[in-house]
Design goal:
379 residues, seven-stranded mixed sheet, four-stranded mixed sheet
Length: 379
């Protein structure tokens, strides 16, 4: 195998690419190189936003690699300097919802099933993350065994700004963060760097991106993954959230979004400017999204990941049929006027009954096999 990771693999096989329309085959490359399954995200013009075809390529590869004795570990990397993956292609999702709702629902089911598949995968997985990681990019990288952050790492789940909610099971992680930091990140969608991500367990190692090639080479050679990463880890230093931890815990522990805003308005002293900025951020988010997100993060505290993904599917299907998701995508990603017209416009007009309707069981729920079934040898 060529050390530069060229198209031909050590075994003589060539990488496989996602099926689909012309040009889609280059969006993701899936190959076996030495002892490593290698996924390369290669859609830089869209900051590696995942399409249905890209997810399908991942969903096909991981079960195959779980049975392949040649594959010791899997590495996921990006050819885009600005981003690892900025999420799903939500414009594609809203277009599907308008033209073929059944196809859009099937795409959501496949998205959440992929996250569950990756969580159940038993071999080492090593996403090499530099630049932005958001939405579905978090979903395909958070639930494996290892997560490596380069110095440019920036994490965010900004879905409330487009009339959605933090999905792909990420509320499971938010619900387990200390001091209400998860609720803060879920509602505001604010970005954090690798120091905070490391402190919160979102990443396992901080390694300069210049050394990512060494990691890939080591995995191709079946080097033990923990020494390979531990020996290159660098202390990221203190995070930006550290001085705000007490204020976040104080404000975001409230039992409602209205209660959070009241506590933010009451902040005085050194944290008052921060609180005022958060209030401004929340005022631009979909009121409905804020309320369903608040309930989801609270509820996820007593759910496992499988059940969390099933809740995500319920909520996402309801968002497909609602107003705010389509309006948010229009305002933020299509027309880019950044002036979404939410319905309802005011937080106080989003009733508990409205939120209940989002969480109500579907006629056809997301069916996910148990972990034991997922890990069966003969899958």
């Amino acid at each position: 195998m060529e050390e530069d990771g060229a198209a031909r693999t050590q075994s003589g096989r060539t990488p496989t690419a996602a099926p689909g329309s012309e040009g889609a085959g280059q969006d993701i490359v899936v190959a076996v190189e030495g002892a490593a399954g290698v996924v390369t995200l290669n859609r830089p013009a869209a900051l590696n936003a995942l399409t249905s075809d890209m997810r399908a390529a991942l969903a096909e590869a991981f079960p195959r690699w779980s049975r392949d004795p040649q594959v010791y570990a899997v590495v996921i990397s990006s050819t885009c300097e600005r981003a690892f993956c900025t999420g799903g292609d939500v414009r594609q999702t809203t277009e599907k919802a308008r033209t073929n709702r059944a196809e859009a629902v099937a795409s959501l089911a496949a998205e959440y099933a992929l996250v569950w598949e990756l969580d159940c995968f038993t071999k080492p997985t090593v996403p090499l993350i530099d630049g932005l990681v958001m939405g579905s990019g978090v979903g395909i990288s958070l639930f494996g065994t290892h997560r490596v952050a380069g110095e440019g790492y920036r994490f965010a789940m900004p879905e409330t700004a487009i009339g959605l909610f933090p999905d792909d099971g990420v509320s499971f992680a938010f619900a387990r963060m200390p001091g209400e930091i998860g609720m803060y990140l879920a509602l505001t969608g604010r970005r954090i760097g690798r120091a905070d991500a490391y402190a919160l367990g979102l990443v396992t190692h901080c390694i300069p991106a210049a050394r990512f090639g060494e990691i890939q080479a080591g995995l191709r050679n079946a080097d033990p993954v923990d020494p390979l990463l531990d020996g290159r880890h660098v202390d990221p230093g203190p995070g930006e959230l550290e001085p705000l931890r007490e204020a976040i815990a104080r404000c975001f522990a409230a039992d409602s979004v209205e209660g959070i805003l009241a506590r933010l308005r009451a902040e005085r002293g050194a944290t008052q400017p921060w609180a005022e900025g958060v209030i401004e951020d929340l005022s631009r988010r979909s009121p409905t999204s804020l309320k369903i997100t608040h309930r989801l993060v609270r509820r996820a505290r007593r759910l496992d990941l499988r059940a969390t993904l099933q809740h995500d599917f319920r909520l996402a299907c309801r968002c497909l049929d609602g107003h705010d998701f389509h309006e948010g995508v229009r305002a933020m990603l299509i027309d880019r006027d950044r002036s979404p017209r939410w319905r309802p416009e005011r937080l106080e007009d989003v009733t508990e009954a409205m939120v209940d309707a989002y969480f109500a069981p579907l006629a056809e729920e997301l069916a996910l096999p148990s972990r034991v079934e997922m890990q069966a040898v003969d899958r």
